[in-house]
Design goal:
The chain has 368 residues and is an alpha/beta fold. The protein has 13 helices and 18 strands. A seven-stranded mixed sheet has the order 8-7-6-9-12-17-18, sandwiched between helices. The chain has a four-stranded mixed sheet with strand order 13-10-11-16, with helices on one face. A three-stranded antiparallel sheet has the order 3-4-5, covered by helices on one side. Strand 3 and strand 4 form a beta hairpin.
Protein backbone atom coordinates (compact mmCIF):
# COMPACT_ATOMS: atom_id res chain seq x y z
CA UNK A 1 0.00 0.00 0.00
CA UNK A 2 1.01 3.63 -0.26
CA UNK A 3 2.20 5.88 2.54
CA UNK A 4 2.59 9.48 1.45
CA UNK A 5 3.00 8.33 -2.14
CA UNK A 6 5.58 5.62 -1.41
CA UNK A 7 4.87 1.93 -1.77
CA UNK A 8 5.42 -0.21 1.33
CA UNK A 9 5.07 -3.74 2.57
CA UNK A 10 4.96 -4.30 6.31
CA UNK A 11 8.13 -6.45 6.27
CA UNK A 12 11.01 -6.80 3.80
CA UNK A 13 14.65 -7.85 3.46
CA UNK A 14 16.86 -4.84 4.12
CA UNK A 15 19.20 -3.46 1.48
CA UNK A 16 22.17 -4.93 3.33
CA UNK A 17 20.80 -8.42 2.61
CA UNK A 18 21.59 -9.48 6.19
CA UNK A 19 18.76 -7.94 8.21
CA UNK A 20 15.00 -7.48 7.97
CA UNK A 21 13.05 -4.24 8.20
CA UNK A 22 9.54 -3.79 9.58
CA UNK A 23 7.10 -0.96 10.11
CA UNK A 24 7.07 -0.52 13.90
CA UNK A 25 3.37 -0.62 14.74
CA UNK A 26 3.89 0.38 18.36
CA UNK A 27 4.61 3.92 17.14
CA UNK A 28 1.23 4.47 15.46
CA UNK A 29 -0.63 6.73 15.03
CA UNK A 30 1.86 9.38 16.11
CA UNK A 31 4.87 8.34 14.05
CA UNK A 32 5.79 6.18 11.06
CA UNK A 33 9.04 4.45 11.87
CA UNK A 34 11.05 1.58 10.41
CA UNK A 35 12.74 -0.89 12.77
CA UNK A 36 15.50 -3.33 11.82
CA UNK A 37 15.70 -6.96 12.91
CA UNK A 38 19.23 -8.36 13.03
CA UNK A 39 18.66 -11.61 14.91
CA UNK A 40 16.06 -14.26 15.60
CA UNK A 41 15.71 -12.75 19.07
CA UNK A 42 14.85 -9.41 17.48
CA UNK A 43 12.11 -11.08 15.45
CA UNK A 44 10.72 -12.84 18.52
CA UNK A 45 10.72 -9.57 20.45
CA UNK A 46 8.95 -7.78 17.59
CA UNK A 47 6.15 -10.37 17.64
CA UNK A 48 5.89 -10.46 21.43
CA UNK A 49 5.62 -6.69 21.97
CA UNK A 50 3.46 -6.25 18.86
CA UNK A 51 5.82 -4.22 16.72
CA UNK A 52 4.30 -6.58 14.19
CA UNK A 53 0.83 -8.06 14.72
CA UNK A 54 -1.97 -9.69 12.81
CA UNK A 55 -1.93 -13.40 12.08
CA UNK A 56 -0.47 -13.30 8.53
CA UNK A 57 2.26 -10.81 9.44
CA UNK A 58 3.18 -12.77 12.58
CA UNK A 59 3.71 -15.83 10.38
CA UNK A 60 5.84 -13.92 7.89
CA UNK A 61 7.95 -12.39 10.66
CA UNK A 62 8.50 -15.81 12.21
CA UNK A 63 9.72 -17.12 8.85
CA UNK A 64 12.22 -14.28 8.62
CA UNK A 65 13.20 -14.96 12.23
CA UNK A 66 14.14 -18.52 11.27
CA UNK A 67 16.16 -17.15 8.35
CA UNK A 68 18.07 -14.82 10.66
CA UNK A 69 18.77 -17.76 12.97
CA UNK A 70 20.07 -19.83 10.05
CA UNK A 71 22.39 -17.00 9.03
CA UNK A 72 23.92 -17.04 12.51
CA UNK A 73 23.99 -20.85 12.94
CA UNK A 74 22.53 -23.27 10.37
CA UNK A 75 22.74 -26.38 12.52
CA UNK A 76 19.80 -28.68 13.30
CA UNK A 77 19.97 -27.62 16.94
CA UNK A 78 19.76 -23.96 15.98
CA UNK A 79 16.79 -24.63 13.69
CA UNK A 80 14.92 -26.44 16.45
CA UNK A 81 15.78 -23.77 19.02
CA UNK A 82 14.65 -20.94 16.74
CA UNK A 83 11.33 -22.60 15.92
CA UNK A 84 10.71 -23.34 19.60
CA UNK A 85 11.55 -19.79 20.73
CA UNK A 86 9.42 -18.15 18.06
CA UNK A 87 6.49 -20.46 18.74
CA UNK A 88 6.34 -19.20 22.33
CA UNK A 89 5.90 -15.56 21.40
CA UNK A 90 2.10 -15.50 20.97
CA UNK A 91 -0.30 -18.44 21.36
CA UNK A 92 -3.50 -17.64 19.47
CA UNK A 93 -2.67 -16.98 15.80
CA UNK A 94 -2.26 -20.31 14.00
CA UNK A 95 -0.23 -18.68 11.19
CA UNK A 96 2.71 -18.63 13.58
CA UNK A 97 2.68 -22.41 13.93
CA UNK A 98 1.95 -22.84 10.20
CA UNK A 99 4.94 -20.74 9.11
CA UNK A 100 7.35 -22.36 11.58
CA UNK A 101 6.19 -25.88 10.69
CA UNK A 102 6.67 -25.09 7.01
CA UNK A 103 10.10 -23.62 7.65
CA UNK A 104 11.33 -26.56 9.69
CA UNK A 105 10.04 -29.19 7.26
CA UNK A 106 11.64 -27.35 4.35
CA UNK A 107 14.99 -26.51 5.92
CA UNK A 108 15.67 -29.83 7.62
CA UNK A 109 16.00 -31.30 4.13
CA UNK A 110 18.61 -28.70 3.12
CA UNK A 111 22.32 -29.11 3.90
CA UNK A 112 23.39 -26.68 6.65
CA UNK A 113 25.57 -24.65 4.30
CA UNK A 114 22.55 -23.85 2.14
CA UNK A 115 19.99 -23.25 4.86
CA UNK A 116 20.36 -19.49 5.28
CA UNK A 117 19.76 -18.78 1.60
CA UNK A 118 16.90 -21.28 1.46
CA UNK A 119 15.32 -19.78 4.56
CA UNK A 120 15.34 -16.25 3.17
CA UNK A 121 13.85 -17.51 -0.11
CA UNK A 122 11.13 -19.28 1.85
CA UNK A 123 10.34 -16.20 3.94
CA UNK A 124 10.05 -14.09 0.80
CA UNK A 125 7.82 -16.73 -0.79
CA UNK A 126 5.52 -16.68 2.25
CA UNK A 127 5.27 -12.89 1.92
CA UNK A 128 4.50 -13.04 -1.81
CA UNK A 129 1.91 -15.75 -1.23
CA UNK A 130 0.24 -13.67 1.45
CA UNK A 131 -0.12 -10.73 -0.92
CA UNK A 132 -1.63 -12.92 -3.65
CA UNK A 133 -4.05 -14.48 -1.16
CA UNK A 134 -5.17 -11.10 0.15
CA UNK A 135 -5.72 -9.75 -3.35
CA UNK A 136 -7.98 -12.72 -4.07
CA UNK A 137 -9.84 -12.16 -0.80
CA UNK A 138 -10.28 -8.55 -1.84
CA UNK A 139 -11.82 -9.45 -5.17
CA UNK A 140 -14.26 -11.96 -3.68
CA UNK A 141 -15.23 -9.55 -0.93
CA UNK A 142 -15.67 -6.70 -3.37
CA UNK A 143 -18.38 -8.72 -5.11
CA UNK A 144 -20.36 -8.64 -1.86
CA UNK A 145 -19.91 -4.88 -1.48
CA UNK A 146 -20.84 -4.34 -5.14
CA UNK A 147 -24.08 -6.27 -4.67
CA UNK A 148 -25.01 -4.14 -1.66
CA UNK A 149 -24.08 -0.95 -3.53
CA UNK A 150 -26.66 -1.80 -6.21
CA UNK A 151 -29.39 -1.59 -3.55
CA UNK A 152 -28.37 1.88 -2.37
CA UNK A 153 -29.72 5.20 -3.54
CA UNK A 154 -27.47 7.37 -5.71
CA UNK A 155 -24.79 9.01 -3.60
CA UNK A 156 -25.43 6.74 -0.63
CA UNK A 157 -22.37 4.77 0.54
CA UNK A 158 -22.13 1.17 1.60
CA UNK A 159 -21.59 1.38 5.36
CA UNK A 160 -19.18 -1.28 6.62
CA UNK A 161 -18.33 -1.92 10.25
CA UNK A 162 -15.03 -3.54 11.17
CA UNK A 163 -13.32 -4.46 14.41
CA UNK A 164 -9.61 -4.34 15.31
CA UNK A 165 -7.14 -4.05 12.44
CA UNK A 166 -7.36 -6.60 9.66
CA UNK A 167 -5.80 -4.17 7.22
CA UNK A 168 -2.55 -4.19 5.33
CA UNK A 169 -0.70 -3.51 8.58
CA UNK A 170 -1.88 -6.93 9.82
CA UNK A 171 -0.61 -8.70 6.70
CA UNK A 172 2.25 -8.21 4.27
CA UNK A 173 0.03 -6.06 2.03
CA UNK A 174 -3.66 -5.34 1.21
CA UNK A 175 -5.09 -6.78 4.42
CA UNK A 176 -7.91 -9.29 4.81
CA UNK A 177 -11.06 -7.49 5.97
CA UNK A 178 -9.95 -4.22 4.39
CA UNK A 179 -8.85 -5.63 1.03
CA UNK A 180 -12.46 -5.65 -0.30
CA UNK A 181 -12.91 -2.11 1.01
CA UNK A 182 -9.79 -0.80 -0.74
CA UNK A 183 -10.71 -2.50 -3.99
CA UNK A 184 -14.30 -1.25 -3.88
CA UNK A 185 -13.13 2.29 -3.09
CA UNK A 186 -10.52 2.22 -5.86
CA UNK A 187 -13.11 0.97 -8.35
CA UNK A 188 -15.37 3.94 -7.66
CA UNK A 189 -17.90 2.36 -5.29
CA UNK A 190 -18.85 4.71 -2.47
CA UNK A 191 -17.96 3.14 0.85
CA UNK A 192 -17.80 4.35 4.41
CA UNK A 193 -16.20 2.39 7.25
CA UNK A 194 -17.24 2.47 10.88
CA UNK A 195 -13.97 1.82 12.72
CA UNK A 196 -14.28 0.31 16.20
CA UNK A 197 -11.63 1.83 18.46
CA UNK A 198 -10.85 -1.73 19.67
CA UNK A 199 -9.83 -1.36 23.28
CA UNK A 200 -7.54 -1.97 25.01
CA UNK A 201 -4.78 -1.54 22.41
CA UNK A 202 -6.89 0.67 20.12
CA UNK A 203 -5.88 -1.08 16.90
CA UNK A 204 -8.92 0.37 15.15
CA UNK A 205 -8.37 3.97 16.25
CA UNK A 206 -4.59 3.76 15.90
CA UNK A 207 -4.06 1.49 12.89
CA UNK A 208 -7.21 0.99 10.79
CA UNK A 209 -8.07 4.68 10.89
CA UNK A 210 -4.49 5.58 9.98
CA UNK A 211 -4.55 3.18 7.03
CA UNK A 212 -7.91 4.29 5.69
CA UNK A 213 -7.01 7.94 6.09
CA UNK A 214 -3.79 7.60 4.13
CA UNK A 215 -5.65 5.74 1.38
CA UNK A 216 -8.46 8.29 1.25
CA UNK A 217 -11.27 5.95 2.34
CA UNK A 218 -14.11 7.72 4.18
CA UNK A 219 -14.36 6.43 7.74
CA UNK A 220 -15.49 7.30 11.25
CA UNK A 221 -13.93 6.04 14.48
CA UNK A 222 -16.50 4.91 17.06
CA UNK A 223 -16.44 3.56 20.60
CA UNK A 224 -16.51 -0.22 20.69
CA UNK A 225 -19.99 -0.31 22.18
CA UNK A 226 -21.54 1.99 19.53
CA UNK A 227 -21.75 -0.66 16.80
CA UNK A 228 -24.98 -2.27 17.98
CA UNK A 229 -26.70 1.12 18.20
CA UNK A 230 -25.67 1.95 14.62
CA UNK A 231 -26.93 -1.42 13.41
CA UNK A 232 -30.30 -0.88 15.08
CA UNK A 233 -30.69 2.47 13.32
CA UNK A 234 -29.89 1.20 9.83
CA UNK A 235 -26.48 2.82 9.61
CA UNK A 236 -24.56 -0.42 8.98
CA UNK A 237 -24.96 -2.55 5.84
CA UNK A 238 -22.47 -5.29 6.68
CA UNK A 239 -19.76 -6.28 9.13
CA UNK A 240 -16.36 -7.59 8.03
CA UNK A 241 -13.68 -8.69 10.47
CA UNK A 242 -10.52 -10.73 10.27
CA UNK A 243 -9.58 -13.78 12.31
CA UNK A 244 -6.45 -15.16 13.94
CA UNK A 245 -7.62 -18.77 13.90
CA UNK A 246 -10.58 -20.53 12.30
CA UNK A 247 -11.61 -24.07 13.18
CA UNK A 248 -12.50 -26.82 10.73
CA UNK A 249 -16.14 -26.19 11.60
CA UNK A 250 -16.06 -22.44 10.92
CA UNK A 251 -15.71 -20.97 14.41
CA UNK A 252 -13.59 -17.82 14.24
CA UNK A 253 -11.25 -16.38 16.85
CA UNK A 254 -10.62 -12.67 16.57
CA UNK A 255 -9.85 -9.64 18.72
CA UNK A 256 -11.87 -9.41 21.92
CA UNK A 257 -15.27 -7.83 21.23
CA UNK A 258 -15.84 -9.50 17.86
CA UNK A 259 -18.36 -11.95 19.32
CA UNK A 260 -20.53 -9.07 20.54
CA UNK A 261 -20.56 -7.54 17.06
CA UNK A 262 -21.67 -10.86 15.59
CA UNK A 263 -24.49 -11.12 18.13
CA UNK A 264 -25.67 -7.60 17.33
CA UNK A 265 -25.49 -8.27 13.59
CA UNK A 266 -27.59 -11.43 13.99
CA UNK A 267 -30.19 -9.58 16.06
CA UNK A 268 -30.40 -6.83 13.43
CA UNK A 269 -30.47 -9.30 10.51
CA UNK A 270 -27.23 -7.93 9.05
CA UNK A 271 -24.53 -9.98 7.29
CA UNK A 272 -21.44 -10.76 9.35
CA UNK A 273 -18.49 -11.80 7.18
CA UNK A 274 -15.02 -12.92 8.19
CA UNK A 275 -12.11 -12.48 5.77
CA UNK A 276 -9.33 -15.01 6.17
CA UNK A 277 -6.35 -16.47 4.31
CA UNK A 278 -6.30 -20.27 4.29
CA UNK A 279 -3.21 -20.53 6.58
CA UNK A 280 -5.48 -19.14 9.31
CA UNK A 281 -7.66 -22.27 9.17
CA UNK A 282 -6.75 -24.86 11.80
CA UNK A 283 -8.22 -28.12 10.53
CA UNK A 284 -7.09 -29.91 13.69
CA UNK A 285 -9.69 -28.06 15.80
CA UNK A 286 -13.48 -28.46 15.81
CA UNK A 287 -14.68 -26.46 18.83
CA UNK A 288 -13.27 -22.95 18.93
CA UNK A 289 -14.58 -22.04 22.37
CA UNK A 290 -13.10 -25.11 24.03
CA UNK A 291 -9.96 -25.66 21.96
CA UNK A 292 -8.48 -22.33 20.83
CA UNK A 293 -5.96 -20.96 23.37
CA UNK A 294 -6.87 -17.39 24.30
CA UNK A 295 -3.93 -15.11 25.00
CA UNK A 296 -4.16 -13.28 28.32
CA UNK A 297 -2.12 -10.09 28.03
CA UNK A 298 -0.87 -7.72 30.68
CA UNK A 299 -3.51 -5.85 32.65
CA UNK A 300 -1.56 -2.64 32.12
CA UNK A 301 -2.92 -2.54 28.56
CA UNK A 302 -6.34 -1.96 30.13
CA UNK A 303 -5.37 0.13 33.14
CA UNK A 304 -3.12 2.52 31.24
CA UNK A 305 -3.59 4.49 28.03
CA UNK A 306 -1.11 6.31 25.82
CA UNK A 307 -2.00 9.42 23.86
CA UNK A 308 -0.77 12.73 22.55
CA UNK A 309 -1.41 15.83 24.65
CA UNK A 310 -2.33 19.24 23.27
CA UNK A 311 1.34 20.21 23.62
CA UNK A 312 2.34 17.35 21.32
CA UNK A 313 3.91 15.16 24.01
CA UNK A 314 3.23 11.44 24.01
CA UNK A 315 2.25 10.39 27.52
CA UNK A 316 0.90 7.30 29.27
CA UNK A 317 -1.60 7.69 32.07
CA UNK A 318 -3.50 5.44 34.49
CA UNK A 319 -7.27 5.22 33.88
CA UNK A 320 -8.41 2.57 36.39
CA UNK A 321 -9.18 3.08 40.08
CA UNK A 322 -6.18 2.34 42.28
CA UNK A 323 -6.13 -1.19 43.60
CA UNK A 324 -8.65 -2.64 41.15
CA UNK A 325 -7.57 -5.94 39.57
CA UNK A 326 -7.60 -6.02 35.77
CA UNK A 327 -8.20 -8.89 33.34
CA UNK A 328 -7.19 -8.73 29.68
CA UNK A 329 -8.25 -11.63 27.44
CA UNK A 330 -7.01 -10.60 23.99
CA UNK A 331 -9.40 -12.64 21.82
CA UNK A 332 -12.85 -14.19 21.78
CA UNK A 333 -14.50 -16.86 19.65
CA UNK A 334 -17.49 -16.26 17.41
CA UNK A 335 -19.39 -19.52 16.77
CA UNK A 336 -19.91 -20.52 13.15
CA UNK A 337 -23.69 -20.16 13.49
CA UNK A 338 -23.26 -16.38 13.67
CA UNK A 339 -21.04 -16.11 10.58
CA UNK A 340 -22.74 -15.32 7.26
CA UNK A 341 -19.73 -16.36 5.21
CA UNK A 342 -15.98 -16.81 5.19
CA UNK A 343 -14.24 -14.73 2.52
CA UNK A 344 -11.19 -16.73 1.42
CA UNK A 345 -8.84 -16.71 -1.54
CA UNK A 346 -10.97 -19.49 -3.05
CA UNK A 347 -14.29 -17.73 -2.72
CA UNK A 348 -16.93 -16.98 -0.13
CA UNK A 349 -17.56 -20.15 1.84
CA UNK A 350 -20.11 -21.33 4.32
CA UNK A 351 -18.86 -21.40 7.89
CA UNK A 352 -19.02 -25.17 8.16
CA UNK A 353 -16.80 -28.23 7.90
CA UNK A 354 -18.01 -29.36 4.47
CA UNK A 355 -17.46 -26.00 2.73
CA UNK A 356 -13.98 -25.54 4.20
CA UNK A 357 -12.91 -29.12 3.48
CA UNK A 358 -14.13 -28.97 -0.13
CA UNK A 359 -12.35 -25.66 -0.74
CA UNK A 360 -9.05 -26.71 0.87
CA UNK A 361 -8.76 -30.52 0.58
CA UNK A 362 -4.96 -30.38 0.63
CA UNK A 363 -5.01 -28.70 4.04
CA UNK A 364 -7.36 -31.33 5.42
CA UNK A 365 -5.03 -34.11 4.31
CA UNK A 366 -2.02 -32.46 5.95
CA UNK A 367 -3.79 -32.05 9.30
CA UNK A 368 -5.31 -35.55 9.28
Amino acid sequence: MNVDGKKYRTIWLAADGASVEIIDQTKFPYAFEIAKLHTMEDAAHAIRVMQVRGAPLIGATAAYGVALAMRADPSDASLDAACSALLQTRPTAVNLYWALDRARKTLIQVAPEGRADAAFVLANDICDEDIAINMAIGMHGMDIITAIARTKREGEPVNILTHCNAGWLATVDWGTATAPVYMAHDSGIQVHVWVDETRPRNQGAFLTAWELGHHGVPHTVIADNAGGHLMQHGEVDMVITGTDRTTATGDVCNKIGTYLKALAARDCDLPFYVALPSPTIDFSLSDGIREIPIEERSGTEVSRMTGRTDSGAIETINIVADGSPVGNPAFDVTPARLVTGLITERGVLGANRQSLAEAFPERVRVSA
